[in-house]
Design goal:
This protein has 18 helices and 12 strands. With about 500 residues, it is of the alpha/beta class. A hairpin with a 2-residue loop joins strand 11 and strand 12. Helix 5 crosses helix 15, helix 7 packs across helix 15 and helix 17 crosses helix 18.
Length: about 500
């Protein structure tokens, strides 16, 4: 029986659930049991998913009486097997090829165990102490890798969407400050400036840019989608034309968002050219490198040339640095711009602490309570080293290049662009009929049928109004043989669907 198995009628027994100096042995026993089970589960996972449906699993979860506790770790873990572990989607499996979810490195999991037990909150020094300094050191390290300069700073966030939101907030407030302080500015009030602000970004950029514009009160219409070229990279000539149009129309280009690794295509916008245009028009340059940040430790670092000229950069360590979610950061070239998210509360970070040089991370974050996620990356770098992470990312990029050749040479499929990173957008092409509507239905069915089988998981997207499939490779254990097998499975499901379609009636002669 578990050390935490007992009756909770005695109030003293309830304190046995708290992690204290008196319950450390109980904690060790409970965590050891859970780690033993999950390690065995991962070792024995034969495919990434069971194929369970929401309708199939809902009754099991809904049937749990949350007001009747089990009072036993082993019993709760047995139950968890039924409601979660058995049917979880396992990203570590080599035939999980869907989204930007990576298998995680073990040193980061050690960090996860430590940070959750100590439970530091990274908002103020008096809640985190060394954790504050570790996070700040990692921000400096990342800024150095990017090349942002000695005035750079930043803070960890929950993910790329939050990092992009904070970047747009800083850009908005910085541009408004600048506009209202100009002697020749026609704007006398903030309400004169806000309706004129525009964000320019590639048509292939992340949806969080439009979402950020809405959350910041600018509206989705404030985002101008700049056309991309045949390789799905923002066209500098189109950006230049839009910037010129903004100037003619009396609009203010608040920010230009370049993407270093688009979600669908892994494309990297031409950063040097975009930086030059931003400088010419006085626009804030933000680089969303949530996906492509792994290049900072890769032998392909040159693909990010120009990122050092950005005003802000988003990085997601929980993508191409192989960290558990959540682990992201927003970096800025000029630490002074972070003042736009600084608010002082007497109970938390009163103004006098600034004069006393007490480092409170809440001064630069849009969050207050915040996990010590930086510890995961810290232990990863201290145990593995940055070059080892870069090699893992390079492996999946190499694999994607080989997979592109496989797809390009296979008459059953068409592939959109040759990858720069590790995503491939493609579709099955029915050999008997080139009807685009039929092709859409075939590819949608193949993806759904594959997911229902649980044998592999692929993503889907839309290109020029048509449905496509997508491989996202982030697992170095995925082999070209795995990819070939998944392509055969897709073709089988597509063929079965086509075989069930009614044949067109022959016209009478």
């Amino acid at each position: 029986m578990s050390l935490l198995a007992h009756s909770a009628e005695d109030p003293a027994d309830n304190r046995a659930y708290l992690l204290t100096n008196g319950t450390a042995r109980r904690y060790h026993s409970a965590v050891t049991e859970s780690v033993t089970r999950i390690s065995a589960k991962i070792a024995g996972t034969a495919q990434p998913f069971t194929g369970i449906t929401a309708d199939g699993l809902t009754p099991t979860v809904s049937g749990i009486d949350l007001d009747s506790p089990l009072h036993d770790v082993a019993a709760a873990l047995d139950e968890l097997e039924e409601v979660y572990l058995r049917d979880a989607v396992y990203f570590h499996h080599p035939r999980y090829l869907a989204h930007l979810n990576c298998p995680v490195v073990i040193p980061a999991l050690v960090g996860e165990a430590v940070l959750s037990a100590v439970n530091s909150s990274l908002d103020t020094w008096d809640q985190s102490a060394g954790g504050t300094l570790i996070e700040r050191r990692l921000i400096d390290w990342t800024a150095e890798r990017i090349g942002l300069g000695e005035a750079a700073d930043g803070v960890f966030t929950s993910g790329g969407s939050q990092s992009n939101l904070q970047a747009m907030l800083l850009a908005r407030d910085e541009v408004c400050r600048r506009e209202l302080s100009r002697e020749d500015s026609p704007a006398a009030r903030l309400t004169d400036v806000l309706p004129r602000l525009r964000i320019l970004t590639s048509e292939c950029s992340h949806f969080s840019i439009r979402k950020s514009a809405t959350l910041l009160g600018l509206g989705a219409d404030a985002v101008i989608a700049v056309p991309s070229d045949d390789t799905k990279r923002m066209r500098p000539d189109a950006l230049a034309a839009e910037l010129a149009r903004c100037r003619r129309d009396g609009l203010i280009p608040m920010a230009v968002v370049a993407t270093a690794g688009t979600t669908d295509f892994g494309s990297i916008d031409p950063l040097p050219e975009i930086a030059g245009l931003c400088a010419g028009y006085g626009a804030w340059m933000h680089v969303d490198a949530a996906y492509g940040c792994g290049l900072l430790v890769s032998r392909r670092r040159a693909l990010l040339t120009g990122i050092e000229r950005a005003d802000s950069v988003t990085v997601d360590y929980h993508k191409s640095f192989f960290q558990p979610v959540s682990s992201s950061a927003i970096l800025v070239r000029d630490r002074a711009t972070l003042r736009h998210v600084t608010y002082h509360a007497d109970y938390l970070n009163p103004r006098r602490m600034v004069e006393q040089r007490i480092p409170n991370q809440v001064d630069k974050s849009i969050q207050t309570t915040r996990r010590f996620d930086a510890l995961k990356l810290w232990l990863t770098l201290r145990i593995m080293g940055a070059p080892a992470l870069g090699e893992l990312f390079d492996e999946v990029i190499d694999r994607a290049a080989d997979a592109w050749k496989l797809l390009h040479d296979d008459p059953r499929f068409e592939v959109v662009v040759e990858p720069r990173l590790s995503t491939l957008v493609f579709r099955y092409v029915p050999s008997t009929d080139q009807d685009p509507e039929l092709s859409d239905r075939v590819n949608l069915h193949a993806r759904e049928a594959l997911f229902a089988s649980g044998a592999a998981i692929v993503a889907g997207t839309v290109v020029d109004g048509r449905h496509y499939l997508k491989f996202t490779l982030l697992n170095p254990e995925t082999t070209l043989e795995d990819i070939a097998t998944v392509l055969d499975l897709i073709a089988e499901h597509a063929g079965s669907y086509l075989a069930e379609q009614p044949r067109p009636a022959l016209s009478a002669r």
